[in-house]
Amino acid sequence: MLTLSLSTLRDRKQLFAGALVAIALGVALVQSSLHVLHSVSDPAIPARLSRAERDDMRENYVGAAVTMGLQAPLVVFLAILVVGSTCSFAVAQRRRDLALLRVLGAGRGQTKRLLATESLLLGVAGALLGAPLGVAMTWVQTRLLEHVGFVPAGFEPVYWHWGSVLAASAAGAGIALLGSWSAARRAARIRPLESLRETGAAARVMTRGRWCVGVVCLALSVVLVVGAQSADPIGAITIAMTLSIVGAVALSALSPLVVPLAARLFGMVFRRSPLGALAEANIRDGARRTASVAAPLITLVSLVLGLSGALGVLARSIGVEQERLTRGDIVVASANGEQAARLAGVPGVADVSSQLTVPVPVTAEVRKDGTRAARPHTFEDRVVAVDAAAYARARTLAPKSGSLADLHGDTVAVGPALPAEGFSAPKVGDTVTVAVAGTERKLRVVAVLPETLDIGDRFLLPREILPAGVLAAAASESIVTVAPGVPVAEVEERIRAAGIGGTATVAEWADRRAEAQQDGNDKIFAVLLGLAGVYALVGVVNALVIATAERRAEFAVARLSGLERPQVVRMAVVEACAVAAIGLGLGSVVAAAGMAGMAKSTAAVTGTAIVVVPWGTLAATVLGAFAVTVTAAVVTARAATRERPAALAAART
Question: Which residues form the ABC3 transporter permease C-terminal domain (predicted)?
Fold first, then answer.
C-alpha cells in the first residue's frame, strides 16, 4: 500500500502539489502563532524603565498575547477549510482512478487505506516543509507586531519550541487525514461503474455531510442574526464576529447549490458572447469545481468585512457613547494639575471638572474570570484623582451601586475598567489598599461605576487624600462648561493663549477617542488577518490549479470544436472571475447580516444606528482576490492548453 501510494503521489504530483503547499503553509502559520504567543506571554521587561513605561510595555505585550491567542484558532479554522477542501477535492478528482482500482479487484477497505496513506504521506511531508518555514513566519509575525507597536524594536521571539512545532505538525497531518477521510469513505461506497460514467452517486455533489453542516450552520446563522437584534452593543459585535465564521461555513458547505444559482445572474451578461455563454455553462455544470474555488473567497470576505466592520462599529460607538456621557462644551488636556487649576479663572468658564492621572498602585480583592475565589491583586497602573461633585456634574454615567457623593476622605470609587477587563469589581463597603507617597492607606469602596464601551479608568480617588505636589505634577484632562451667551471658540482661544493646554470641543474629543480606538483596532486587524488572508487566497489558487489540471481533455475538445487557444484561456479567465465575484458577493452577504444586527443594537443604546463599512479594506480584498484569481487562471489555463489538442481529446487524466 505504501509503494502504491508513493507511486500515485509521484505520478499525480501536479494534483497533490496544491495540497502539499496548503499543509505546509498551515503548519507554518500555526507554528509561528504559537511561537510568538509563547514569547510574549512572559516577556522580560527592563528594570531601567520608569513605572509608566513598564506599564505601557506590559500592556502592549498583553495586547500581542491576546491577538496571537485569537490568531492561532483562526489559522486552524482556515487550515481546516483550505487543507480539508483541497484534499477532499483532490480525492474527488481521482474518482475514475479509484473506480479502475475497484474494477481490478481492490476492495473498499483497500481503497480507503490507500487514500489514508496518501494523506498521511502528504501530511508528514507538509509538516516537514512547514516546520522550517514556520521559523521564517515567526520572524515575519514578530516584525509585524513590532511595526504596529505591540512589541519593542529588536524584540527576539522563540524561533524553535518543540511543543509548538509538534502541535502544529500534528494539526497539519491530522487536518489532511480528516480532509480526505470523508471523501475516501464516499469514494469507497460509490459503485465503480457509476464513477467511470459519472452517474448516480458519483454525480451527486451535495453529500449528506455537506447537507448536515450547511443546514445546521445556516440555522445557527439565522439564530445569531435574530439574537443580535436584541443584544447590547458588545453582544451584537461579538455575535457579528461569530456570524462571520458560522455563516461562511454555511455558505461554503452549500456552495455547490448556491454558486450555480448565482451564476444564472451573471448569465444575463455572459450570454451576449459565445465565450461568456460557455463559461456560464461550465460554472453551472462543474458545481464541485466552482464550489471549491468560491469557498475560500466566501470565508475570506466574510472574515475581513465581519471582523473589520465589527471593530469599526466598536470604535465609532465609543465616540458616540463618550459624547453622550459627557456634559460640557470643551475638553482641555493639560500637562500638569497646576495648569488645570488655572482654568476656573479664565473669563467665560462657568464650571470645570478636572481628572488627574496619578501613578498609584492599588491592591484589591478581586476574582478573575474563570477563578472561583477572590484573591488580592495589585493593579500596577494609574488612578484618577477627582473632585466628586464636579465629576458628577460633568458626566451622566451614574454608579450602579453606591454614590459619588460619598467620595471624600479615605474612600475610592471603582471605575468601569475592572468588569471590562474580566475582574469582579469590589462591592460597596469593601476595602482596597493604595500606596500614597510611600504610605499604605486603606480606602473604603463607596461607588461602583457600570461597564462602558470605552474601558476607561479602574479606580477614582478623592483629590484630598493625595499630596498637593503629586496633584500639581499629574497630567490632567478637564471638561469645561462655558457660561451662557459666551462663544465656545472664544473661550478655547483664551485657554490656549493662557498656555493651559490643548483644547477640543466635546464632539471633537469624542471623535479623537474613536479614532484612537480605531488605530488600535487596525493594528489588531493587520496582525490577525494579514497572513491569514494570504493563506485563504492560497486556497483559491490551489483549487484553480487542481481543477484546471484535470480539464486538459475538456479544453482540447473545445479547441477541436473551433476555439483557438487564446479563446480557451479567456474563457477560463471569465469563468474564474465570475466564480470569484460570486464568492466575494456571498461573503459580503454574511457580513451584511452581522452589520444589520449591530445597527439595530447600537440604535437602541446610543440613539444612532452605527454601521461601518471598511471600504478601503474591502477594495484591497476585492482587487487582491481578482488579481490572484486572474493570474492563476491564466497560468493554469495556458499550461493545460500547451499540448496539441488531438493528443488530449480522448484523455482521461
Answer: 74-191, 527-643
